[in-house]
Amino acid sequence: xxxxxxxxxxxxxxxxxxxxxxxxxxxxxxxxxxxxxxxxxxxxxxxxxxxxxxxxxxxxxxxxxxxxxxxxxxxxxxxxxxxxxxxxxxxxxxxxxxxxxxxxxxxxxxxxxxxxxxxxxxxxxxxxxxxxxxxxxxxxxxxxxxxxxxxxxxxxxxxxxxxxxxxxxxxxxxxxxxxxxxxxxxxxxxxxxxxxxxxxxxxxxxxxxxxxxxxxxxxxxxxxxxxxxxxxxxxxxxxxxxxxxxxxxxxxxxxxxxxxxxxxxxxxxxxxxxxxxxxxxxxxx
Amino acid sequence: xxxxxxxxxxxxxxxxxxxxxxxxxxxxxxxxxxxxxxxxxxxxxxxxxxxxxxxxxxxxxxxxxxxxxxxxxxxxxxxxxxxxxxxxxxxxxxxxxxxxxxxxxxxxxxxxxxxxxxxxxxxxxxxxxxxxxxxxxxxxxxxxxxxxxxxxxxxxxxxxxxxxxxxxxxxxxxxxxxxxxxxxxxxxxxxxxxxxxxxxxxxxxxxxxxxxxxxxxxxxxxxxxxxxxxxxxxxxxxxxxxxxxxxxxxxxxxxxxxxxxxxxxxxxxxxxxxxxxx
Lengths: 285, 278
What we know:
The complex is a heterodimer of chains A (285) and B (278).
Chain A: H1 2-51, H2 60-73, H3 77-93, H4 97-110, H5 115-136, H6 145-169, H7 174-186, H8 191-203, H9 209-221, H10 225-235, H11 244-260, H12 280-283
Helix pairs in contact in A: 3-4, 4-5, 5-6, 5-7, 6-7, 7-8, 8-9, 9-10, 10-11
Chain B: H1 8-24, H2 26-40, H3 42-45, H4 54-87, H5 90-96, H6 101-141, H7 154-181, H8 185-212, H9 215-227, H10 237-241, H11 248-274
Helix pairs in contact in B: 1-6, 2-4, 2-6, 4-6, 4-7, 4-8, 6-7, 6-11, 7-8, 7-11, 8-9
């Protein structure tokens, strides 16, 4: 009996030993393969991340949101995000602030690539939601201007936060800086901040000329006319002569020179224009 | 058994039978038709596109369908084709003959790889046709938006399809490795899907723990990163949809990376299956 028991125990041990060996060999084999291929994977991964902002997840929260949806939905992200945006529009028409905000976060989490979601989302937060909150608090007539501005400022800050998040996915995008400037100007009534944002927008590749013009215009409104003049005189030679805004910039320069009383001999004289084939964006830096 | 040498012909015969068996299965036809229907009908979904350009939207949807249905097909087919041999006792009959277990396992693997190749080839072909016809229509309708000519290159579309297939071959190897020691088909399928999720998300664990986890957590996350391949490396659909050319050296590197994991997983599957009692 003791012999059979000993045989049975040794059989169990052999079985366990064999299974443990199989597990160790499998894990060890895969780990060695991974280690051997790491030299190849690391540069590939670094290059892929540099190209795809959606893969650069700074925080654990972003990893749990964008990372998981990116990993699991893959190419279906676009269509899922589009249908979520449709749903958001239905909720938006009902003026449901909490649900709209939630769906907005969801859309940009599912697919952070399209600018459309970020820009329109920021507009909804800054302008529509402000109107909803004012209506909910009793209406435009019941609230004082201070109260309305306070609500507007709160929403504007939330919208700017959304745009800042968008900039982590779309670094160097002029449209996001312009949207930020618009909100700072029209909702926060902060011309200095808006002027700075228009300047940053102009520094981004492919920025429209009006961003630079608006920067100068806001400087003028802030009383920084000399600064505005210097800005425009530096801007004008960078613009192609056939562009619509070039003539407008020159007329603004003349206006500022008149307002500042610049002597005729010191007025701006347009030099050679930008050579054909070179864009304003290339020459501005 | 040791008297006969390893035969590529026997292995290829097993692979051919596996492919034939798979083609008779309803699951294969169902997933293939579903995926083809989705890609073929993608043009009707473009009305719902808000954010991306239309061609990028179509490319996203096509490669998304290929990845999603392809993964489901790979896992289900690998488990089904392996366990049908075990449960029907045909494996016993086959292995009683002078056939190596390695030939059996690698033959099964190649059969599944051929199934996924057919799937990806059909999907890529249809996607190229859909994108090409839509781009031609857009070229006629709004020529000003295409001053540089066509934005999509067929060779890039084909390369992105090839990389999707390569990813599926790695997934098939890992599913076969699980099947080699698993007792049930259900366990293999469920574990196969877990492997798929881990391979897609392992970079998040590595990042999260590298940023601020304990030393143990960092080591554990690093170990997981070594065990499972990073499936994000196979995703070139974003570039292709945006008209960015695919770099050949990157494709070559990803191919070597995939082959490394395929070799290891298949080798370990053979090792595990040799110890298995059938």
